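@channel sequence for tomorrow's demo:
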Amino acid sequence: MNHARAAHGYAEKVEDRVAYDPSLDVKLMEADPIKGENDSRILIGIFSYNRGPRKVRINRASKRSNGEIVVGKLGGLTPDEALAVATALVKIANAPEARGTAA
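structure tokens (generated this afternoon):
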């Protein structure tokens, strides 16, 4: 077990973890994609896994030289990207879907 996790009260064993099930991961809303560096797109959305708490997810989609689009961790941001992400986060975090008040 990871000792740092144990020190914070996590007593989880590997065999106690449940495998990730993509069918339980629901996208509640998404912001318009942000044009990033090197033709990438920054994707921001509100998700709920297994009807759990609503969480903001931020990823970067990039195109490989063979044309394949891959989505991964956001990584570093240019100052312009950071400003665009901050603006989008304020907008999406205040949306009714993020707060659970959508009609």
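heads up for whoever presents: The radius of gyration is 17 Å.
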